[in-house]
Amino acid sequence: MDKAQIFLSIARRVIRAEADGLVQLADGLGGEFAEAVELMLGARGRVIVSGMGKSGHVARKIAATLASTGTPAQFVHPAEASHGDLGMLTPDDVLLMLSNSGETPELADMIAYSRRFGIPMIGVASRAGSTLLKQSDVAITLPRVDEACGTGVVPTTSTTMTLALGDALAVALMEHRQFQPEDFRNFHPGGKLGAQLSRVRDLMHVGDALPLVSGTAPMGDTLLEISRKGFGVVGVTDAAGLLTGIITDGDLRRHMDGLLSLTAADVMTRNPRTIGPDALAEAAVGVMNERKITCLFVIDKELPGRAVGLLHIHDCLRVGLG
Predict the structure, then answer these.
(1) DSSP H helical segments within 191-280, as ranges?
(2) pTM score of the predicted model
(3) Which domains does the chain have, with CATH numbers?
(4) 60-80 pLDDT, tens per residue?
(5) Phi/psi zone of residue 102: left (φ > 0), alpha (ψ -120 to 50 degrees), beta?
């Protein structure tokens, strides 16, 4: 067996061992999981997540996941807690404490503090009789499975199970609260994810930036409006100010003969494709790609037929869509 095959064999063994741990974790969950969710739902403050070493790294990720899905949460390092950060815990909080053994000495001060001040504590460990689980208001026992390292000393399967348990708690809380994509975007305004969850209203041009003319406008004035606004299109409105058509470069080319003798209504394409301000910008990009167009006028359902904005494909490309 060459080196590549050996490495692949190790990788598959590790992944299968961790996958088996996750199956055992899922099958072994009971009422204590529901109790933990209820405790966190009832918190008037935050969920304080803590752990030492590898459990601490997992705790940071769990705190971040909770915070981004509607459950206020914060990681507190147990060693720092012993030197003043215990003041971050209040009786309105819930403490989620992680430790594979349940006997990590650095957790002792946080455990004692939570007991002294009546701060509810959820303990997660693999030993049912451990100090952490015996002291916890809700004790979640991880399955006793072999670590995937083969030596039994490197936290692998145990940390994977703990991380998955944290995800399960976060999703249970999120679904109970009916956390929606627009809520998620509030916590993820940056990067590709923020762009994907942007609304048309976040990117559209409004007010004086809108290229609009009346149907009776001479094409000379219409061309000036197209040039001034710089979008390469102009919307055409009727006497009531409602959008009835759009003029694009294609419309101009089709009416080159005697163009300046015509009005905007003579040249426009009627019933243009539009979109609502609350639609996802990503959906707008899909429409523009499908129709091979570069702009969409935005029509508010509360103002039927009236253009309230214009979305250009360049606005979407600028934030990473397209």
Answers:
(1) 191-196, 200-203, 219-229, 249-254, 264-267
(2) 0.66
(3) 3-179 (3.40.50.10490), 200-318 (3.10.580.10)
(4) 999 999 988 889 999 999 999
(5) left
